[in-house]
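During the second half of the funding period, the structural biology subgroup turned its attention to how the target accommodates small molecules. The most pressing case was glycine, which had performed well in the primary screen but for which no bound structure existed. We therefore specified the complex as follows and requested a full 3D prediction, including the ligand pose.
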Amino acid sequence: MSKARSQSTTLLILIFLFIHPFCSCAQEYRNGAVSSAHKLATEAGISVLKNGGNAVDAAVAAGFVLAVVYPQAGNLGGGGFMVIHLNDGTNTSIDYREKAPGASHRNMYLDGEGNVIPGLSTVGQLAAGVPGSVAGMLFALERYGTMSREEILKFAIDIADTGFAVEEKLSQAIESYRSDFNIFEGSREIFGSGVLPGTLLVQKDLANTLRRISDLGKDGFYDGETAELIVEEMKRGNGIITRDDLRAYEPKEREVMKGSYKDYELISMGPPSSGGISLIYLLNILENYDLRSMGYGSAEAVQLMTEAMRRVYADRSEFMGDADFVNVPWDILTSKVYAERRMQDYSPNASSKSSDVMHGEAYYRESDQTTHYSVADGFGNVVSTTTTLNDVFGNRVVVKGAGFLLNNEMDDFSSKPGVPNIYGLVGNEANAIEPGKRMLSSMTPTIVFRKGKPFLVLGSPGGGRIITTVLQTFINITEFGMSLSSAIDSPRFHHQWLPDEIQFEKNYGNEEMRRHLDQMGYIIKDVGEFGKVDAIMIEEDGSVKAHTDRRGYGSAVVF
Ligand code: GLY
């Protein structure tokens, strides 16, 4: 697919309009829309759409802006996945997940006795995988966008240069991690004294890094000055990312994972994310039951969905990893027959136990700092992107002189079989550390189709709870008859096999439902809010709706 640049004569413009396969032959939707975790990212995306850019252009512009205004999860130093549907029927996905550095090895986070050293895979330079976001966003722009790097990056550069007013929630988040920020020189300079709400946060080093990317493309990050600054940062601590690791990083365009649920079809992200497989597997189970008559929040629905989640997450732990390194049986896991077989021991009258499904030990920690954004243009193209540094502010290390945070994505590997990561998720051999391997993700950027046309564009942060958040948003709409906003804002629950407990957001369901499940032997735990869905819905008449989760401070705009 060649890149279409603006044409200089009327004739060329007319030719372009007739032959370009995904840009602007027809106004397929009445509106375009962007839904993201921050109003400035949404505004950048909308501005691109208003200036004739397509959904990929807008998604990339929003992605770079999030790296400036949403440092909790927006990033240059992390990774992500982009699922794209073009109006010529093309479905594709771009994998820009981080990779394990060349000097990594499976026991790198263990002590001499083989025990995991707390904090080593989460805070500090050694926790970082080789970043993928810049390469992935530029790849998407060059292959499927229509605008130049300079046109797209100018939004992020301007905001980094001139500053933005820090929101209360960002200020609080910075405050929570100040002790970590003060360990690292680059982080201390920006966040070490805290940042009060309303402060104009100017990020000159970040603006310069963005300028190098704008001028030089991928080399502006993976080579030259930025690469040198990253390697210097590694040396300041115990980091192992080298110039060669950076130079060798390539994003991968991958086939989407495809599934169906009743009259809907969907595409989502395949390995190295577990998201697409797990979502399709869950839906394959659930379509065999009458969720609609059970109703949202009923004991019957929660019990059924819990038992489905238990089985899917047990298989996630056993089978899933980077399919470039291990054999992931995705075809079996996403087959309708397997889903049916897996529920043969399900009883609506009894709780099963995770220890009977598979053995393991796990603990639980709340953290959901990933971010999702959804874009639709008026031409019929839609983009669903989830990106992350993993934990809040990644490994808390700002690359000194370059102004961006690094990820702590190495924690998404299984440091040791059966030992949980920060999300309480356990893994084994399939997700063991190997040089060049991508760590298993739960990110689930998804596009749902109705009658062959895009209907929903959605995704969420939430670590291991991303998959069940996306699932419930979809089921709330298709089975429980909710509007887009209610489907997103309604309380949720989660089960992930281990720990063997149902995690309820505050206000989920009523006392009677909880008592009923308790009597059946389920362990119930109240947890804080999780997931922040940013989604777009396209009605059959082509009109577009967008909504950002009440749990965040994002912005959804339709124009
Ligand atoms: N770092 C969270 C995920 O990729 O699932």
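Two results from this model are relevant to the next phase. The chain is about 35% helix and 15% strand. Residues 254-369+443-558 form a domain with the Glutamine Phosphoribosylpyrophosphate, subunit 1, domain 1 fold (CATH 3.60.20.40).
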